[in-house]
Task: structure prediction
Amino acid sequence: MSNDEQLIHIGAVGRVLYTARWLVASLFVVFLAAYALAVWLGASYSARAVIRTPDLTVAEFKRVLETAADQAIVSQVSARDFKDDAHLAAVAGDVARDPNFADHFVPIYTISRTDLRETALATPASGEQILAVQTNVDSRDRRTARQLALLLAEQFADGALKSALVDYVTYQRGTVQSNADRLDAKQAGDRALLERVEQKIGELRKMRGMYPDAEVPYPTNVPSSATPPEAKPFNPMAREPRPVAPPLTDAPARYLSPVAQLVGAESEAINIRDAMRESDRKRRILDWQRDFFTKVATLDLTSLSGAALLNRLESMLKSSAMDSADPDSVVREARATILADLSVFRARYVDGYTVLRMPPERPPRVGPSLAVHLVGGVAASAVLAVLLTLALRWRRLSAVSR
Result:
């Protein structure tokens, strides 16, 4: 094909486009509007939030994720944050029911807390712990993405608290019962020992009544060559056998006066009774704690969030319904022990889980920028308008030629 023929064809195309310029412009506007609508409908915004956590292992992280998807936690946390926005509350529920719910949480591993901003998201190395968790949400609405990113961070903290409290209640129920069984065995042993000591005391009292003036004739804890005053001199010519001294191991029991033995036995009995009174006090503490954790086990834990469960436990401890006759402050001590444990949970999970970085007010768009979309939309619309105009012109010419 010669250059003249190419110029003729290019000129013909130009004349066709000039003649149908209004059609080309109309098609260009239509295609550009369609492209803009498609970009707007497919627009997505990404929000990220980082929550600082106490040290977590990978197993603890996975267990917390399972609890964070609990509908009780989602509903109560979203009701608190979105009390005036039912739409966001519904979206939060849909996110929690998503099979890929765990993908919204990315653990951050590091050894030091000095600067989590410079910490890369990676798999843990030797000795590293999870010290922070990043939540990520993509949404068509900027505000929704930001609010959901914060909500997921709060869900994670509340899920960690609920998981820890449930484990604590389960563990304490078994521990209290085990300690009570051990204490029962100890009390049985103390009672048997006290019975033997009291029997010995009774025998020694009878002996003291029979021999009120009995004293230690001579020291028996050290060897001595002195002849006892009442002993007869040994006569080798006599037919009587030579007296044999008792073994030194039997000397204290054999030669200690009944009065001295009685004092020792009564002192031992006093110590045993003191130990039994202390064991009885511990047993009453364990009984009170066992009753408390038994009542906690009757709660519907599936309907409570972590914060609600912690508040419920504290209110049950402080309520007068758990009080009883308490002359020895048993209830006060038992309650104080559990309150001290709950204060640790509040400090670790309520105060320890803090949002380190909040998402921006206007989360960035996902994908190419608007400038790239504008250039691409104009170019694509122009090309499509030209091609469609030429196709319609060629089709008309083909119909005329036939």
Q: What stands out?
A: The chain is about 65% helix and 10% strand. Residues 4-8, 117-122, 216-228, 248-253 have pLDDT under 50 and may be disordered. The first strand starts at residue 45 and ends at 56.
